[in-house]
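User: Quick sanity check before I run a bigger batch. Here is a single chain. Can you write out its predicted 3D structure?
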Amino acid sequence: MLSQPFAPPSYPYFKGRSIGRRFAFVEAKKQILFKNGTLTAVSPREFLEVVVLPNRRELHENCADLRRAYNAIASIDALAAHVYFWLTTNAPTTVTHLKSDSAYREELAGKDPNFRLLRDIAKAQKHVVLNRGNPQVTEASQLTSRPTGWGHGRFGQGRFGGPPQVVVEIGPGSFEYAETILDQALGLLIAEMDAAGI
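Assistant: Done. Predicted structure follows.
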């Protein structure tokens, strides 16, 4: 149990020092997003820049870390909801045929198999076991961190040499690399955002 309430870090190390433009930009965004200690509503583009991209970058920096994989997956899945609700307000004719953000995710899953896989992983993380529909991932335990071995994965995917990395076990002897799934699914969402003018 925490003895003190959570507060965003103040980064005392950087006080009075020259920091990079990117770090300064992120810090400025945090000032916009955190007001009185609470996260304010953000646009999908702000959510992408402040939440999704840092989570994705952290996973790329340590590809074997399950915590970072869970955070990146959950944030990309949440980005789909941000996009859907932005569309309902700003471009309603594009989503009038959809009843919810889940239906929007289903539509995106039909466009890209990596987004379908990401959505299934996110649902399995939330519910632990999926027993409705026909998901590729039915249990949260299918997301693992392990060495893959040389020549076991698809060519051009995963880390060279098969070091420990997060993978999704699809079936016996069949797996996909979490980094590839995330990058492809995020690419789809960014394309959707660009097309909508977000």
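The beta strands are 34-35, 38-39, 143-146, 165-171, 174-177.

User: Great, the batch can go ahead then.
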